[in-house]
UniProtKB/TrEMBL annotation:
Keywords: Membrane, Transmembrane, Transmembrane helix
Protein name: AI-2E family transporter
Topology term for the membrane: Multi-pass membrane protein
Compartment(s) of residence: Membrane
Lineage of origin: Bacteria, Pseudomonadati, Bacteroidota, Sphingobacteriia, Sphingobacteriales
Length: 352
C-alpha cells in the first residue's frame, strides 16, 4: 500500500524551486526594462526641469548681485532682475535683430558657394587636396541625414523653450516651495544632508553659469573685434555664433570655427589660416583666464568625463542633452561627493 507523502505528483522540490527562481528572474528583468523605458521617455522632461532650474539660478544670482550693491528689498531686486533681463534681451534683438537676420540669410544663401570656393582653394595645395580626398570618402547621403537630424532636433529644442522658460519663471517666483517639497520627501535622518546637498548644487550651478556667461560674452567681443579687424563679412553673426556655442565645452568652439574658416578660404588660404589661428588664440585665452575663474566657484570637472557625458547625453537627448551635459555632470559629482565620498571619510575617521 503506497503512502501519501503530501507532495505533488510528477515534480520534485528541486524542480519547483528552480521554476520559482526562473519566474522571479523574469519578473525582475521585466521590471528593469519597464523602468529603463520610463526613464528614457522621462529623461527629456528631467533635462527641461534642469534647464528651467538654470534660468531660475540666473535670475536669483543677478538678484543677489543687485541686492548687494543697492541694499534694496529682495522682492524689488528680483523684479529688476527678471524684468531687466527681458528688457535687455528684447532691446538687443530689436537693435541687432535686422542686421543679424540679414547676415544669417546671406550666410545661408552663400554657404554652397562658400564651400565650393573653399574646395577650389584647397585643391591648389597638396595638403588641401589630401584633405578633400579624405573627406570625399564619406558618404554624402549619410552626412546630409546627420545634418537634417541635427537641425530637426534643434527645432525640437526651440519648441521646448516655451516650457523651459515658464518652468524657470515658476522656480524663480517660489524656489523655497520646491526646495522644501524635495526635503519633505527625505526621511528625517537625511533632511539635513539633503539641505546641504541642495545648497551646494545651487552654489555650484550659480558659479558655473556666471563664469560661462562671462566666457561667452568675452569670446563674442574678441571674435567680432578680430573678424572686423580682418575685414571679414558677417562678423557679427559669426561672433554671436562663437559666443553661444561656447556654452558647449570642447565641441562648441570647433563648430563655430568651421563657417568662419570656410569664409576665409573664399578670400585666400592664408586668410583661412589666420582666422583659425585667431579662434585658437581666443580659446587659449578663455581656457587660461575664464576657466580657472569658473573652477574657483565650482568643482573641477575632469575633461575626459566632460566629453563622455556630452557624447552620452547627446545620444540620449540630442542637442538639449549636449547643452546640459556639463551642469548635469557637475550635479552628479556633487551628489557622489556629498552622499558617498564624505560619508566614507567620516567612517574612516570614526573607526580610527
Amino acid at each position: 500500500m503506497a503512502l501519501n507523502t503530501g507532495r505533488p505528483t510528477g515534480k520534485t522540490d528541486e524542480q519547483l524551486s528552480f521554476s520559482h527562481k526562473i519566474w522571479i528572474v523574469i519578473g525582475i528583468v521585466a521590471l528593469a526594462v519597464s523602468i529603463i523605458l520610463i526613464l528614457r521617455v522621462a529623461f527629456n522632461v528631467l533635462l527641461m526641469v534642469l534647464a528651467g532650474s538654470l534660468i531660475a539660478v540666473f535670475f536669483h544670482g543677478l538678484g543677489d548681485a543687485i541686492q548687494r550693491r543697492t541694499f534694496m528689498r529682495r522682492s524689488i531686486c528680483m523684479i529688476i532682475s527678471v524684468v531687466g533681463t527681458f528688457a535687455i534681451v528684447g532691446f538687443l534683438f530689436w537693435f541687432m535683430g535686422n542686421k543679424i537676420q540679414a547676415q544669417v540669410a546671406a550666410l545661408s544663401d552663400d554657404f554652397p558657394r562658400i564651400v565650393s570656393k573653399a574646395q577650389g582653394q584647397l585643391q591648389q595645395t597638396e595638403l588641401g587636396a589630401k584633405v578633400l580626398k579624405s573627406v570625399s570618402k564619406y558618404d554624402t547621403t549619410s552626412l546630409m541625414t546627420t545634418a537634417q537630424s541635427f537641425f530637426s532636433t534643434s527645432f525640437g529644442v526651440l519648441g521646448d523653450l516655451y516650457i523651459i522658460l515658464f518652468l524657470g519663471i515658476f522656480f524663480t517666483v517660489s524656489p523655497s516651495m520646491y526646495k522644501d517639497g524635495i526635503i519633505k520627501l527625505i526621511p528625517p535622518s537625511g533632511k539635513h544632508d539633503a539641505k546641504v546637498v541642495i545648497d551646494r548644487i545651487s552654489l555650484v550651478l550659480k558659479g558655473w553659469l556666471k563664469g560661462m556667461m562671462l566666457a561667452m560674452l568675452l569670446i563674442a567681443i574678441l571674435t567680432v573685434s578680430g573678424l572686423t579687424a580682418l575685414s571679414i563679412p558677417m562678423a557679427l553673426t559669426l561672433a554671436l555664433m562663437a559666443g553661444l556655442l561656447n556654452f558647449i565645452p570642447n565641441f562648441g568652439p570647433l563648430i563655430a570655427m568651421v563657417p568662419a574658416v570656410l569664409l576665409g578660404f573664399t578670400i585666400s588660404p592664408n586668410m583661412a589660416i589666420t582666422i583659425a589661428a585667431m579662434y585658437i588664440l581666443i580659446q587659449i585665452l578663455e581656457s587660461n583666464i575664464i576657466t580657472p575663474m569658473v573652477q574657483k566657484r565650482m568643482i573641477d570637472l575632469p575633461p575626459a568625463l566632460t566629453i563622455i557625458s556630452q557624447v552620452l547625453m547627446g545620444t540620449l537627448s540630442g542637442v538639449l542633452g549636449i547643452l546640459l551635459a556639463t551642469p548635469m555632470l557637475a550635479i552628479i559629482i556633487v551628489l557622489v561627493d556629498e552622499l558617498y565620498v564624505k560619508k566614507q571619510k567620516e567612517v574612516i575617521i570614526t573607526s580610527e
